[in-house]
Amino acid sequence: MKYAKLRPESTPSVTAPLCVGLAGLGTVGAGVVALLDANASLIERRADRPIVVTAVSARDRGRDRGVDTARFAWVDDATELAHRDDVDVVVEMIGGSDGPALVLAKATLTAGKAFVTANKAMLAHHGLELAALAEARGTALKYEAAVAGGIPVIKGLREGAAANRLTRVYGILNGTCNYILSRMEAEKLSFDAVLADAQRLGFAEADPSFDVDGIDAAHKLSILAAIAFGARIDFASIAIEGIRAVAAVDIDHAATLGFRIKLVGLASEVDGALFQRVHPCLVPHAHPLAHVDGSLNAVVAEGDFVGRLFFSGRGAGAGPTASAVVADLIDVARGEVGPAFAMPTARLAALGVADTAEHVGRFYLRLTVADRPGVLAELTAALRDAGVSIESLIQRGTTVSDTAGGGGVYVVMVTHAVRQSAVAAALRHMAASDSAVAPPVMMHLLDF
Amino acid sequence: MKYAKLRPESTPSVTAPLCVGLAGLGTVGAGVVALLDANASLIERRADRPIVVTAVSARDRGRDRGVDTARFAWVDDATELAHRDDVDVVVEMIGGSDGPALVLAKATLTAGKAFVTANKAMLAHHGLELAALAEARGTALKYEAAVAGGIPVIKGLREGAAANRLTRVYGILNGTCNYILSRMEAEKLSFDAVLADAQRLGFAEADPSFDVDGIDAAHKLSILAAIAFGARIDFASIAIEGIRAVAAVDIDHAATLGFRIKLVGLASEVDGALFQRVHPCLVPHAHPLAHVDGSLNAVVAEGDFVGRLFFSGRGAGAGPTASAVVADLIDVARGEVGPAFAMPTARLAALGVADTAEHVGRFYLRLTVADRPGVLAELTAALRDAGVSIESLIQRGTTVSDTAGGGGVYVVMVTHAVRQSAVAAALRHMAASDSAVAPPVMMHLLDF
Question: pLDDT (tens digit, 9 = 90+) per residue, A235-256?
Fold first, then answer.
């Protein structure tokens, strides 16, 4: 795709509406219709032309969606939207990494029409291919809503921080996990109890695994990393750990030590290799991420000239998602579109994969051990032998009632900075000891 | 200015460098050179073409600036940059609302060249005229660095939040004030003591009035308000109050009540009128602005669909400012430029001015009164008579030694939500009382 140096004065006036074909009329698709209705005149002023939905497609034509969709042309097969003369840009709200969403994306871009989506799973798996297709056809692939909902982080990284060599990008990328962890902390409840309640309230899916196992956060992280480091998306190499193993006792100990536990997605470039990881993480109270509560999302980008940029806001829901989708439509209407991943795909680097086991940082360890003399000496010797130095240690005099083995006590430690492989070696040694009542728990600390 | 619907496939390839003429080689101008040198290859990948400085202008040709400027063409009169064939875009780092900066801006835009600036004073006073000139000539006026330094808030409002009717925009817009207030709180020092130290350390100017009297924050606020509300810039109508009157005792009392004092710039649209104010403000600990410390800046935008967006980062300094300037240059190189204030100037509304005295909110009041029986009854009666209801009150049994009159005691109150004019009436009554030892102090609370 080529770009004009500056748009010449002679560019013809375009005051015709930008016509949108909308595929998918769930909560978010209906939210896009509601937003375009509510703020039509404002959007026309900002885009210098109206933005109107002309045709829609969804599974069930008859369903009441709270917005009037009878005024739009209806197509049963979403792919038709790509070929209609009354559609300039397709908004895809179907979801799923493959299947109808991907078919529609390819058809739309092949037809030379702009494609706007919130589909992080599809981008994580097929983003590079779609970006190349958009480039070849001289059209736009836009996806602000795919990461962190209404927060303009794609724009913030792609354009706002574009002058910087970014050292790392990280954040709280899944509102369901942050909601669960926040409630576990505030109400001293277990993961299972909060999850069940969140499902009842509609804050978590019936099958919550995409969220609580970290997959959704990893999809988003892979997109952020590609933009931040000018790299090809590499979802497959992300080390992913969800929040199922986070116990109330860990949250409690972390608080005592000055931390809050958050599910953090983190990417950095280490010696030309891409380091990408999603994991529960102890965040110090002084870090702005520690204060991102409930279902909010937040992204931090650290650049060599700008320093630390922090963005937060609502990461999901009909309103914030529609806000991001329509922001993309306004960019398209204004003609302010360029390469999907901040640079032409041919310039994206194929970075190697950093070995996360070689990562150096501080770690939180929780061991559940038999309550008898000499155990602490055994533990500390095992850590010393593995070269792991202890920064702080908590052992309370209470026995543990909720572990499978029963009768143990918790020993909680924070290490000094050390290679992860060394900690893993020490933990293997400890797990094999007959002093261990339950498997050890290890979590990362946010060190920066 | 007209926009292409979508950039057609036939747009010619432009791989020639974007050539920059740089006016002003102070800390920030030199920072732009340093950044373009340090990240040249990365910027070329992101912009799909090199961005190079070709010509520069500054007051003193011989000065050592820590970057090599001998390789650039030198012009004594910055205005020449507008007319050179080897300059595509002019970056203005001269400063000042009028004078050479304004002459250069007009010459550059008139010549049909893009103009990038960090000059908030010039934009606050002449932004509308310059935006209209850019539109008429089909070129770009870009100014990300003018507000909140490296934080991409102009882009965040202009594009990221463009789908929303914004209800308000506010933030911490002056790093010098935030640094002074943060140190006053942390070290329990007076304004004068911290200011003197900040001047010694180079964090405050020899003449600090632009910063500490709120003028700089107001310049930035006027720009944010124009973008947020689609309104013509109206700097003249901003109610401005700086931080000179904030006393250590106010910071201390605010902390007791659960607040931190920040200089906040706030704009909202009230019944079609523009409400704009810069003032010291008590921010509740639960609000993200309360955790913005030291010289950091932060901006909050609240939209009808997106909810609350929060941006923070470094608001000044060579690195962050250069980051924003070069982000603008990358936008220009990519051809992703549109109307300076988010919509064509003809579509910007000329809003009326909201009467800030009619504002309803909670207030912090500090009264210094004689330590004798009946005074508290007199005060509370005066407030009752003015219709002001008290939410909390602190009177400590210690006499005040640092007031002019001497011998008084402080009575500190937070009101329930009330019209500002009612509070002002009560304060006038109290100030006239012979119980008053020193003038009353009133500050706003951030209520949302």
Answer: 999 999 999 999 999 999 999 9
φ, ψ dihedrals at A260, nearest 5° = -120, 145
Q: Does B309 touch chain A (CB under 8 A)?
A: yes
pLDDT of residue A46: 95
The residue to which tokens 């640079």 are assigned:
A343
Q: Assign domain A357-445 to a CATH class.
A: alpha beta
Among B2, B9, B313, whose Cβ lies nearest the Cβ of A14? B2
Cα atoms in the Cβ-side hemisphere of radius 13 Å centred on B190: 5
> What whole-number distance in Å separates Cα of residue A118 and Cα of residue A121?
9
Q: What φ, ψ does residue B265 adopt, rounded to 5°?
A: -100, 130
**What is the β-pairing status of strands A166-172 and B307-314?**
unpaired
CB contact under 8 Å between B7 and A3, yes or no, is yes
A46/B contact by beta carbon, under 8 A: yes
Question: What is the SS3 assignment for B122?
Answer: helix
**Which residues are bridge partners to A408 per DSSP?**
A370
pLDDT at B406: 61
pLDDT confidence tier of residue B319, bands split at 50, 70 and 90: very high
The answer as to CATH 3.30.70.260 being correct for domain B358-445 is: yes
In the Cβ-directed half-sphere of A371, how many Cα atoms lie within 13 Å? 13
Token pair, residue A67, equals 């917005």
Give yes or no for residue B71 having a pLDDT over 70: yes
Mind telling me the catalytic residues of B? 220
Over the Cα atoms of chain A, what is R_g? 24
**A165-313 has which fold?**
Dihydrodipicolinate Reductase; domain 2 (3.30.360)
Decide yes or no: CATH 3.20.20.70 for domain A18-150+338-345. Answer: no
**CATH number, domain B162-313:** 3.30.360.10
Cα–Cα distances in angstroms (integers) from residue B373 to residues A348, B381, B394, in the given order: 77, 14, 16
pLDDT of residue A53: 98
- Beta-carbon separation of A312 and B310 below 8 A: yes
Chain A residues with CB-CB distance to B109 below 8 A: none
Question: What is the C-alpha separation between B404 and B393, in angstroms, rounded?
Answer: 23
Short-list B307, B315, B191, B321, CA closest to B265: B315
Position A111: which residue type? A
Question: Within a 10 A sphere around the Cβ of A204, how many other Cβ atoms?
Answer: 21
Q: Is B160 on the interface with A (CB under 8 A)?
A: yes
Query: Of A91, A100, A157, nearest to A332 (Cα)?
Result: A91
- Domain definitions of chain A by residue range: 18-150+338-345, 165-313, 357-445
Does the CB of B165 have a partner CB in chain A at under 8 Å? Answer: yes
Residues of A in contact with B138 (CB under 8 A): 6-9, 11
Question: Would the pLDDT of A268 be above 50?
Answer: yes
Say which of B1, B156, B320 has its CB closest to residue A305: B320
- Window 359-398 of B, Cβ < 8 Å to A: none
Kindly give the residue spans of alpha helices, DSSP state H, lying in A137-188: 153-155, 175-187
